[in-house]
Amino acid sequence: GESVGLHLPTLSVQEGDNSIINCAYSNSASDYFIWYKQESGKGPQFIIDIRSNMDKRQGQRVTVLLNKTVKHLSLQIAATQPGDSAVYFCAENIRTGGFKTIFGAGTRLFVKA
Amino acid sequence: KAGVTQTPRYLIKTRGQQVTLSCSPISGHRSVSWYQQTPGQGLQFLFEYFSETQRNKGNFPGRFSGRQFSNSRSEMNVSTLELGDSALYLCASSLDRPLQETQYFGPGTRLLVL
Fold first, then answer.
1. Which uninterrupted H or E stretch holds A65?
2. Which of left, alpha, beta for A28 (phi over 0: left; psi -120 to 50: alpha)?
3. Of B90, B25, B61, B57, nearest in space to A96 by CA
4. Which of A49, A48, A113 is nearest to A83 (CA)?
5. Which residue of chain B is at minimal alpha-carbon distance from A31?
6. Which of A69, A97, B26, B74 is most buried, with most CB under 10 Å away?
7. Tens digits of per-residue pLDDT, B20-73?
8. Cβ atoms within 10 A of the Cβ of B24, count?
9. Burial class (CB in 10 A: 0-12, 13-18, 19+), B70
10. How far is B94 from chain A (nearest CA, A)?
11. Contacts for A60-63 with beta carbons within 8 Å, 24 or more apart?
């Protein structure tokens, strides 16, 4: 079936350290992957995306890696800050006429000061 | 440019009632998707609309329905509410053009069914 899952439900890191959040997906037909950040009381906020013809993409303090061989996606946050504390979701877009987005379970990131 | 807006933000209903939630997408976005978010099930896809047509539907019962208007605004309706329908309902909009398919989310409507 179609699923996007996360290896770790909770991640605690020290302020200033790098964070790595992992995700496994199962739908080989997906060609577009997204990471979202959700803070309490808010809707998911777009962080970074990557297409299946790429294996790495960098943004400001964030990097997404895609390994299609093992169907694995990761989000790296450099120099993690307290404001990074949130739930992070990976998601994949599946084209079926229109599209639908399948979300992973989410990982809660705690940043210790 | 204004973001995705959803109304109402909070709603309390009782079992058996029905509810209508509204979503206004980002200006120019023609694709609108709806999601249900609960602690136990996470974010689950409900349906997606584009140019007033439902293009995709998730695995929800027929009590959940939606529509999209010519100005791309969308509504979703839940009839005969059940306790398990208590959730955060999120709307997201997208340009849905090649290489421009990122979805942007609204703040959600929190529904409590008593």
1. strand A62-67
2. alpha
3. B57
4. A113
5. B99
6. B74
7. 999 999 999 999 999 999 887 788 999 999 999 999 899 999 999 999 999 999
8. 20
9. exposed
10. 11
11. A62/A35
Sign of CA dihedral B65, B94, B87, A76: positive
Q: How far is B13 from chain A (nearest CA, A)?
A: 20
DSSP H or E stretch at residue B74: strand B74-78
B58 touches A: beta carbon within 8 Å: yes
pLDDT of residue B39: 80
> Does A8 have pLDDT greater than 60?
no
Instruction: Name the token pair of A23.
Output: 């995700």
Q: CA A69 to CA A30: how far, in whole Å?
A: 13
Express as a percent the part of chain B with pLDDT over 70. Answer: 96
Q: Which of A41, A44, A97 is closest, CB to CB, to B105?
A: A44
Buried b (16+ CB within 10 A) or exposed e, A92-113: bbbeeebbbbbbbbbbebebee
SS (H, E, C) A34-61: EEEEECCCCCCEEEEEEECCCCEEECCC
